[in-house]
Fold this protein.
Amino acid sequence: MTQTLLELIDTRVSAALAAAGCEGAAAIVQPAARPEFGDYQANGVMAAAKARKMNPRELAQSVIDKLDLAGIASKVDIAGPGFINITLSPEFLAERANTALSRADLAVPHPARQHVVVDYSSPNLAKEMHVGHLRSTIIGDAIARVLRFLGHDVIAQNHVGDWGTQFGMLTAYMIETSAAGDAELALSDLEGFYRNAKQRFDEDPAFAEKSREYVVKLQGGDTEVNALWRRFLDVSLHHCEAVYERLGVGLTRADVRGESAYNDDLPVVVADLQAKGLAVESDGAQVVFLEEFKNKEGQPQAYIVRKQDGGYLYATTDLAAVRYRVGTLHADRVLYVVDARQGLHFQQLFTVCRKAGYASDAVQLQHVGFGVMLGDDGKPFKTRSGGTVKLADLLVEADERAFALVSELNADLPEDERRKIAHAVGIGAVKYADLSKNRTSDYTFDWDTMLAMQGNTAPYLQYAYARISSVFRKAGQWDAAAAIVLNEPAERMLALELARFADTVHAVAREASPHFLCAYLYELAGQFMRFYETCPVLKSEGATQASRLQLCRLTANTLKTGLGLLGIDVLESM
Ligand code: ARG
């Protein structure tokens, strides 16, 4: 298949619109909102008629007269002021299903191939990874998987915070702790290490002075301080990697390109911005004034690229990173999976990059923002005592809670089996709870909701998959080459839902919004349950049974592929 279902119908309706005298008019094809509107509705006729002062219903009729949906639709009619309702034929849907079944990639068509840089996870290495980085890691991983599935060349960039004044303090503290002989031990608790270093910094002026000295040494390339810094980063990255491993997120060292990597380029960037007349001096700092962004007083906002003291900023590093991503990595698209609160930073960054020519209009720069993770008290997620929740602890708890659930469902399974299942369920639940919400809104982290067996949750979908697997265990042998034939309405509805997978995946990639896929999988599982209730599978016979088993198989493949794109494993039994 070269086109998704929506693309196919859209192409045909657009052609009919053109043939009816509306060249270039948008067909605006959408899935129908209600069953009585058919399967798809084309809504473009009214606007096309209005723009050309035509009668919309008459135009709709002449579009239908010219519309070629032979072999695709079984019914096309006009509704209301000029909507075109399209019902797909069972033969056509069966053919799509048979094709999808024959292909490991479910015959999802690939869009034009792009180099896509996805900046995600990107924790600050001075401290231990905390829940704030969970969303970026999970959402970024899902987006990267979806883009790869569609054939894009995805380059993950873990833009870790590995540079800046904190590292002077931390390396100075490493010397102190190793003098006391317990640096390794102290570093095993990074959070505590940071806290203690900070305390020393605040309480002891001599230590603070030494920290500042170390920053200068680090930036000046001093061998000893650099070695300490590298050692610290290595330990901190190890902590991150343990979290990635637990989460099943494929980020590796090769994907790490931290802030420090851009260090040498920062003066070059500022000089370039000056030469282009974009950066100017203001109170001793170098600033790009942006007319596009007015502050409260109506003055253009200042995007500072070099501080008064000559130091560079997060903003400068991001400018250098865009140059690298576009210039060296040849990105056609760069996605920043970062907290929505950094929205203004990215808008300004992108504006400066366009003006400076670091990214032409052909390159898409997109901030994939997300909301805050909230506790059940509606405030940012914290431990009971008000501390930040360590990711590592949270993920251990996910396994524990899922183990209790799995043991309830299936007490007879041996413990190690239940542990394995629990890991997939626990991590799946944490990921799915995050991914199923529109990423831009804040979301409430709640163990009971995410581990519920009912509703739009990972365990519900994993269970749906396991149920289908059990059908195959009971069926014993089946004909893997049998054709799907759609006779019952519930069979046709299931096949229609299955045929919508490709459009869903394309939408996720376009909008960088994994929740479309979650909503789809939930809907698919629902359609499957309706099919399974009304159309006996194991109790049917012959070609009917073979066809129904194939529908089961395609549903299972689609659930597995879809959950896989979200980074969630399926289970043969649960
Ligand atoms: N380290 C930053 C933080 O923890 C996120 C970096 C995001 N990426 C970027 N290119 N600015 O907030």
User: Anything to note?
Assistant: The chain has a mean pLDDT of 95. The two ends are 35 Å apart (CA to CA). Residues 5-88 form a domain with the Gyrase A; domain 2 fold (CATH 3.30.1360.70). The pocket of arginine is lined by residues 119, 122-124, 159, 161, 318, 321, 336, 338 (CB under 6 Å).
